[in-house]
Amino acid sequence: MKHPVKLALGLILILGACGSSTTSGSGAARLGSNPALSGGSYDSGGGITIATELRQINGMTGICGAWSESEVQQVFTKGRSAGVVKTASLYAGGQKLKQDLLFMRKVAPTPNYSGAEANCITTNRPWQPGDEALRPEVRIASQVVYLQRGGGGVKVMFNPTGPGASNSARAAYGIDLTDTQNATLSRTATLTGGHYSSGGGITIAGAYQDIDGIAYVCGIWSESKKQAAQTVGKAEQVLASGSISLNGRVVVRDLRFMQTSKHNRGLTRKLARCASTGLPWVPGYASLPLAVSIPRQIVAQNQGQPIYFEPTGPGA
User: Fold this and answer.
1) Tens digits of per-residue pLDDT, 153-201?
2) Single pTM value for the model
3) Distance between CA 138 and CA 99 in Å, rounded?
4) Which residue from 248, 192, 240 is spatially nearest to 219, judged by alpha carbons?
5) 3-state percent breakdown (helix, strand, coil) of the chain, nearest 5
6) Do residue 138 and residue 43 come from a single domain?
7) pLDDT value, residue 177
8) What end-to-end distance do the CA atoms of the chain give, in Å?
9) Domain boundaries, position 152
10) Same domain as 204, residue 140
11) Burial class (CB in 10 A: 0-12, 13-18, 19+), 155
């Protein structure tokens, strides 16, 4: 039989370790009128907002918080925001109170989060006089949230730039998707696109066009009828990674707003889908070639070998 004193000491050590937890659950509440807002943005568009406040809970310092992510964002970041929130830490007066903020309630994006539903926890820090004026600080490191390796693959970063969640399509796509119109595509439209290394590809026809004095990007895209089975349905991924610039400035991210065509030829002078850049129209824009950028990327695998999309020009 083992010595009873040793067993007792072991039990005390175990209980002591269990009692050293820095936080415990304290239920739900609504945030006050002025929660501290923080977060960040993805360099592909969209982002995260974290709303927090400190409260006295049974004489101890409590943390209440909620977080949200952009309702419209690129395919590369969908489903990845929780992982970013998990890496976040909360400080008060320079003291770290909590690592991993996923206990907070996820809510829809709002302007200021006043009255937002939140989850709360209690820390082991005693509440002190004057803490009512103490503002919590959330720290999140810059991090890679999506990485597709191989020959100029896609890399998406999260950066702690401040509140970044939005229900605005413009924040994620660079355009307002509610402000799209149909128009006949210019006969001088730019033709571009690319090929899959396994055969077939995508053609994009687009132009800057004047609609009611505003510069719009109008476009149509098509894909090869004959292509490898592995690339069927991959055109959406490729289009999502694309962007359009005007005078060196990205004005549109994600090309999926464009009209789809079943025909691979004669795309100009057909009905196109147009997205507003929000910029005033300048007559000289009509003569500019559409500045489309699509990265080289892996779209599928064939027997362990990558299939690439190569932005080589019209490919359908």
Assistant:
1) 678 889 898 888 875 545 555 555 545 788 899 989 999 999 999 999 9
2) 0.54
3) 10
4) 192
5) 15, 45, 40
6) yes
7) 52
8) 80
9) 22-159
10) no
11) middle
Residue 34 included in any domain? yes
3-state secondary structure 203-227: EEEEEEEEECCEEEEEEEEEECCCC
Can you tell me the distance from the alpha carbon of 156 to that of 153, in angstroms, rounded to the nearest whole number?
A: 10
49 falls in which pLDDT band (50, 70, 90)?
Answer: very high
Note the helical H segments in the chain.
4-18, 81-86, 169-173, 235-240
Whole-number pLDDT of residue 268: 75
Among the candidates 159, 185, 204, a domain finishes at: 159
Same domain, 304 and 206: yes
**Burial (0-12, 13-18, 19+ Cβ within 10 Å), 179:** middle
> Is 18 exposed, middle or buried, given 0-12, 13-18 or 19+ CB atoms closer than 10 A?
exposed
What pLDDT is stored for residue 117 in this prediction? 95
Of the candidates 159, 192, 214, which is a domain's last residue? 159
Q: Please report how many Cα atoms fall inside a 13 Å half-sphere around the Cα of residue 262, on the Cβ side.
A: 0
Residue corresponding to tokens 């070998």 = 305
Position 210 in a domain: yes
- Provide the token pair at 236: 């959406």
Predicted pLDDT of residue 175 = 52
CB 25 within 8 A of CB 123: no
Smallest Cα–Cα separation from 40: which of 151, 131, 152, 157? 157
pLDDT tens digits, 189-246 = 999 999 999 999 999 999 999 999 999 999 999 999 889 999 988 888 888 888 899 9
177 DSSP assignment:
T
58 Cβ neighbours under 8 A, 6+ residues apart = 122
Number of helices followed by number of strands (H, E) in the chain? 4, 22
Phi/psi at 112 (5° precision): -135, -5
Q: Are residues 86 and 189 in the same domain?
A: no
